[in-house]
Amino acid sequence: MAVLSPTQPTHRHGAPGARPPRRVGLSQRLGRWDVKVSPYLYISPFFLLFALTGLFPLAYTAFVSLHEWSLLGGQGEFTGLQNYAAVLAQPLFWKSLVNTFSIFVFSSVPQVILAITIAALLDQNLRAATFWRMGVLIPYVVAPVAVSMIFGRLFADDYGLINELLGFVGVDPIGWHTDRVASHVAIASMVNFRWTGYNALIFLAAMQAVPRELYEASVIDGAGRARQFFSITVPQIRATIIFVVITSTIGGLQIFDEVRMYDPKGLGGPDQDWMTTVVYLYDVAWGNQKNLGRASAVALLLFLLIIVIGMVNFLITQRIATSGPKGAKVSRRHARRVLAEARVAQASGSTAPASGATTSTPPLPPTFPPTTSTTDREDRR
To answer: Low complexity composition bias: which ranges (predicted)?
Structure first.
């Protein structure tokens, strides 16, 4: 039997069923503005605080760097880029920059290796895991001045504990305060002592986010712990590795406390063998020169160097972001396929390992057949 739908009435404003336009009330307009504007109001305190504590000091430093500005006399004449030219012409600036990068190399490379190793150990099933995870963070809590004073005594030239221990094994005492490379190693050890545990917790958080099904599939394929670490863990946390390397680079460019407290004078030794760029900035501003204009120029040059490293970090991160998920999807798809093959082999009673594995198949959780809903049964009828 055919059913006819009722015809729609024709209104004055045009097509059948058309309704007259309604005016938007004030409350509705306020509601729309609330939806559009309120998110920006919620995050505005951060940007206001950042403008006061970040942008304004940066802009004011750039303003000071363009003037002849002394510590006692204050603002002087406009000099343009003369302060920058004077800083770049000083050999001590380039020496401090080389010292900064040298200390960074001696600190960042062992630091990342130790941190990722400690994180891999903490990622295992350990007893009192919280205790060990908090224990690696204790050096980060210690004040940098205290760490510098302690390590300064340990690396003393005449009565230091390190030279005494080296004497027991037949090694001649090392001039930790006279040799340039040795001083860089001593200062880098302070940085490693303080920041290794902190970076290890960052690596640990990244490792715990790795899907466990990848490790289960690798166990079925017969991979050992070392193969799992280099084939699964490291590729999955490579973005975190890049992040830690870049942040340690930025921190190494701003190193000050360890160098300042390494010797009594705190200016990088008699020949400035371990003077970093920030210590050089301090000496220009409040040392012998007392020239805030040149010190501001040094600060801006260091800021530009950090910006360049940040751009490199952005490019590397973008490349990882475009190539990483594909590999992750393929790895997860392979893990699901291996687990499915193992379940099928276990269900069929086969003792042969799946996917060419050389080890026995571990027990897997039982799988249940899919249930049929009432709607599907009615459709079949």
So the answer is: 347-361
* Residues near 7 by beta carbon (within 8 Å), at least 6 away in sequence: 16
CB 101 within 8 A of CB 309: no
Single-letter code of the amino acid located at 72: L
> Using an 8 Å Cβ cutoff, are 125 and 250 in contact?
no
235-256 as b/e: b if 16+ CB within 10 A? ebbbebbbbbbbbbbeebbebe
One-letter amino acid for residue 341 of the chain: E
Q: Quick check: helix, strand or coil at residue 77?
A: strand
Write out the H or E segment, with its range, that includes residue 305. helix 292-347
Q: Check pLDDT > 70 for residue 58.
A: yes
Could you tell me if 155 and 176 are in contact, meaning their C-beta atoms sit under 8 angstroms apart?
yes
Angle between helices 238-253 and 91-122 (to 10 degrees): 140
CATH topology classification for 82-341: MetI-like fold (1.10.3720)
Could you give the 3-state DSSP secondary structure of residue 69? strand
- Helix 292-347 / helix 238-253 crossing angle, nearest 10 deg: 160
| 149-198 pLDDT, tens digit each | 888 888 888 888 898 888 888 888 888 888 899 999 999 999 999 899 99
- pLDDT, tens only, 243-272: 888 888 788 888 888 888 888 888 888 888
Rounded to whole angstroms, the Cα distance separating 136 from 130 reads 10
Structural domain boundaries in the chain: 82-341
The residue type of 137 is: L
Compute the distance between CA of residue 322 and CA of residue 333 in angstroms, rounded to an integer.
18
